[in-house]
Structures are given as structure tokens and as C-alpha cells.
Amino acid sequence: METLSEQKHAATTNQFTLFWKHFPSNLLKFPWIFTIILLTSTEAFLLLQSCEPTMFHFLLLCIFLLYFILKQFLSKPKPIYLVDFSCLKPESCLRVPFSKFLRNASMIDGFDSESIAFMAKVLTSSGISQETCLPPALHRIPPKTHQRESIKEAEMVLFPIMDDLLAKTKLSPRDIDILIVNCSGFCPSPSLSSIVINKYSMRSDIKSYNISGMGCSASALCIDLAHNLLKVHNNSNAVVLSTEILSNGWYAGNERSKLLINCLFRMGSAAILLTNKTEAKKSSKYRLLRTLRTQRAFDEKAYLSAFREEDSNGKLGVTLKRDLLQVAGETLRANISILGSEILPFSEKFWYGVSVMQKKFINKAEGIYVPNFKTVIQHFCLPSSGRPVIREIGKGLKLAERDMEPALTTLHRFGNQSSSSLWYELAYLEAKERVQKRDKIWLLGMGSGPKCNSVVLECFRPIVGRSNKGPWDDCIHRYPSVVEN
After folding, report:
1. pTM of the model
2. Using CA atoms, how far apart are residues 42 and 363, in angstroms rounded to an integer?
3. Most CB atoms closer than 10 Å: which of 20, 127, 175, 353?
4. Residue 123 and residue 230 in contact, taking contact as beta carbons nearer than 8 Å
5. Residue 13 and residue 176: Cα distance in Å, rounded?
6. At what angle do helices 98-106 and 113-125 cross, to 10 degrees?
7. Looking at the record's lineage, which domain of life comes first (predicted)?
């Protein structure tokens, strides 16, 4: 087993490797830098050789400049737009106040009194409100967790948001070229993507994907997948559907590390339309600037930090280990090392690089400089896995309370909705009318595996008039004041 100091040294070495792997390549990828370096070196050499400038030098300069201008113009990737998105607002009859949750749980044979007391403690300290919702199957005593109920739940959370997205964008189901559906814990046959295709009578040549087992980061991961697919499939529309089926993931045992899922996860789903069609620019809300995926499944400790397995009585549940926060931090650092090398200004990259080298070679006790992402990012949608996770990530990124507000309020009002939570946070920012033209939004998804996925969006126009629409329409005026610090 590795000691703590060895683990820290390995993490620092990994950051150092990532920094030098991506920082120089991103710094030097700009053609004009190559041009300036080459031409300056050539002219300096000729001057040192006492050579007088000639027409040859002028022609050489013109050829280089023309070549790189044309190369930039011809090789510029086609922009990918996020036209719009929709989030499910569960019916109020599905709400589970703490008293109802605990009363129902106490009537289920699988839980002992210690488990009920533990879940009561988790609920009161979780940061979620009395208004979060569970599917009908989990309102039953005992909960109905068989296949048919899970299919009904899938239809309940996927069809309404698909209908809403189609209505918003005036898109026909037969205009969809790519369909990606993600749900981590429920993978029926036929797949969820096939269920959607069947419901909406989509085309026979639609490219469909069903993503499972990817945890809370799956939605950002699917945006990355859609991004890559749209790079090679011209003039196409891609729809991403993100959800989690809770009836399939209910744990009815007494292991503390598995009971957390019952207390935190709640209903939610989101539908997102992306396109590379040129004419969509006028109607789109955002442009997709960057997606990035990193993972730490190679690390045994990280790999086992969140694991679905049977307990000693054969009951299936997801185990969340105590070192989950530490693993999340390590996973996040790898992602921001790469993302920061691409989007941060030179000054932030420089000081980060200096601190990494200082820790590596000079003073190993010295902390690594945390770049200020607020120099390029105006809004942050963080993983709403729990209040401690949100605050720890916010602290690590040097974010203010206002920056963490979308994640904290989403957790409070809707609970942890797994992969779809990011879109409720973006909907919150829109409802508050904070997103202005040219603002950049960072959607950060973290999930089991573990993995970390980033999506960076740029707003095309001020998002106004959304306070009376979407999932926040009846409660936006109450936030953020109702969220406890």
C-alpha cells in the first residue's frame, strides 16, 4: 500500500506531467506564434551575418503570412451551437417531505431503527429541502423496484422534456440525426434510446447511443460525445437526454455507506439540442466552446470510491467511501490542469507552471497556485452531489458564494438529480437573468469511475424573460435567501 506522502508525490508528478504535456502544445498551437518565431530567427540570423535585406526576404514574409492566414481560414472548425434545453419539473404530488420519507421508511421491513436514525441525520444535514420529489414507485410501501415500474418512470421523466424541447425549438422528431440517452443505473433491453425512438417514430437512419454506468458526470460526457459526432456529421441535429431512474437504484438494506443514495438522489431529467447547422446561429442560446473528459479509473483507490455492489445480505446498492471528497479533488485537479492550459490567460498559466515546478523541484511543502478561472469564466455549474462537495470544489477553485449559488440552490430545491443537475443550474442562472451576451459558462460534471467532464459554453445573447418558465417558475423569487449557509 502507498503511504500518504507517496500518494501526494504521485499526484504532484501527475499534475506536472499534465501541465507540460498540454501547456506548451496549446501555447504554441497558434500559427502566428510559429510565424513570428521563424521569421524573427531568420532575420536575426541574417543580420548577425551582416546580410542586407532583399526582395527575397519580403517575398518570404508575404508567403508565410498568406499561408497561415489561409490555413486558419480553411481549417477553422465549424461552430457547434446549443440551441436550447428543457428540464423536468416533477409534479408537486410527488414531493417527499422528510417526515413522509422517514415514516414510509420505518414501515419497510428492510430498515432497522439505526438506519432510520442515520437517514434522518443525513436528510437534515444534506442541504436539500422538503420539496424534492421521488417517483411513484418509491411512494409505495414497500417500494416497487421491478422492471416495469422502472420503464414507467423512464417514460415519465423522458417524454415530457422531449415534448417540451421539440415545442421550444419547433423541431420535428424526424429532423433529429443523433440521439444520445444517458442513465447510469438502469439499462433495459430494448434500450432507453430505442424506447424514445419508438415513441417519436424517428428515422431509420438515426444514430442512437445509450450510455450507462457513467454516474453524475454522464450528461457532460454525452455533450462531449455529441460534440465529436457533430464534427464529422455535417448539417446535423443532436439531442441529448439525461436522467437517472431511482426506483431501480433504491437500497433496502442497513449498510450506512449505501443509505446515502436513498437520502440525496431525487427525480430530474434534461433534454438538450445541439446542432452544427449554420442557420441555427440566430435561434441558438449558446455556442459550444470546449469539452474535456478525464478519468482516474486506473487508480484502484479512486476506482473503488463509489461502487455498486451487493451487501452481506445480497441487497444491491451503491457504496460511497469516506475518501470520496479526496478522490473528487484529485480527479478535478487533473481536469482543470488541462482545461486551464487551454483557456486561461498567459499570466495565470505562468504562475501555475511556476508553482508546479517549485513544488516538484524546490519546496515540496509549498502549495500549488490555484489559477483564477474567473478571469475567463463568468458562471459556474458545479456538481450538486452534496453541500460538502459543492463547497469543497468552490474552495478549490477560489469561488465566491454567488458562484456556488446555482449548485447549492439546485441541491436545495431539487436534490441531487445526478447527471441532469447541471442543466437545472443553468436554468437557474437564466431565470435570474444573469447570463449576458459573450458570458462563458463552465458546466463541471463529476461521477463514478471516477471521471470529470467539462463543458464550456459562450452565450450569444442576454437570456431574459425566463423567470416564469422552466423548473424554477414558481420559486425563483425565494432563492438564494432560503438556502442555509
Report:
1. 0.85
2. 40
3. 127
4. no
5. 45
6. 170
7. Eukaryota
